[in-house]
Write a structure and sequence with these properties.
This protein has a single domain, classed as Vaccinia Virus protein VP39 (Rossmann fold), CATH 3.40.50.150. Helix content is 29%, strand content 22%. Helix 1 packs across helix 5.
Length: 264
């Protein structure tokens, strides 16, 4: 891992650890919610994409799993081995608690910088999943895709649900507005906190967001032996960022689903 990647990921992980107690407080009702064996936190289009992979009895890893709700949803669908990975120790603790509350004690959670995973997990999973709000925290999207590809067995699939890259041009407001070039390559520094539920600002540890164009994302995958099999742009809010744009007359895409297959 380069010094540059180490610097940015440490800053971001520290900021997420700081935010974890706030998120736990906001999501205090989750303990009772996950008790339902049919609990499913996935958005409809991504849910359908997961189902298209015949998930039952397959091994699945979620990269940057946060509090584990999405990998728990996959487990509830009948997946076999399920592993959630996150750089935030605090969110991994929340994920472990919720999986136990959900009576899924065999789920696994790993606290690790995604750029520095142990080799033991390579070529171990039928599916890698990524859900909303991951790409932008990655200072090097090519190295990140390399890691994702390395986790897959041959013919395994990478499934992604993300905020559409075009929203990197926008700033939140009433209404949200274009404030940046689509081709901006400078990291965006922020210290207003990571409360994306209530949008409450607080004096937070600094974090850095990186804009990756759709071209960069697709080429990062191609360069790591991943063949695109599915892409769907979404008109509705998936990440609670610039959510008002869903309802404007000339709305941009707000989300995107993608599926790749590992080829040898």
């Amino acid at each position: 891992m380069s010094d540059k990647i180490a610097f940015y990921t440490k800053k971001n992980i520290d900021s997420w650890n700081e935010a974890a107690p706030r998120h736990a407080s906001i999501n205090s009702s989750l303990i009772s919610t996950v008790l339902n064996p049919a609990f499913n936190n996935l958005n409809p289009d991504f849910d359908a994409l997961v189902d298209s992979c015949n998930i039952k009895n397959k091994s699945v890893v979620q990269v940057c799993c946060n509090n584990g709700l999405d990998i728990l949803s996959v487990k509830n669908k009948g997946a076999a081995r399920c592993l959630g990975i996150d750089g935030s120790k605090e969110f991994i603790s929340q994920a472990k608690e919720l999986s136990e509350d959900a009576n899924q004690p065999d789920m696994e959670f790993l606290h690790s910088n995604i750029y520095d995973l142990p080799d033991e997990f390579k070529s171990s999973f039928d599916l890698v999943i990524i859900t909303v709000g991951v790409f932008g925290w990655m200072p090097d999207i090519y190295k990140f895709m390399e890691v994702c590809s390395s986790l897959l067995v041959a013919d395994g699939q990478l499934l992604v649900e993300e905020i559409h890259p075009i929203l990197g041009m926008y700033e939140e407001g009433k209404p949200s507005y274009i404030d940046s070039s689509y081709f901006n390559k400078e990291p965006i520094k922020d210290s207003n906190g990571l409360d994306y539920f209530n949008k409450e600002k607080y004096d937070a540890k600094e974090n850095y967001w990186f804009h990756h164009s759709l071209t960069e994302i697709l080429m990062a995958a191609i360069s790591n032996n991943l063949r695109l099999e599915h892409i769907k742009e979404l008109s509705y809010n998936v990440g609670n960022f610039c959510a008002d744009l869903e309802f404007v007359k000339h709305n941009p895409p707000l989300g995107i689903n993608l599926s790749w297959r590992k080829i040898e």
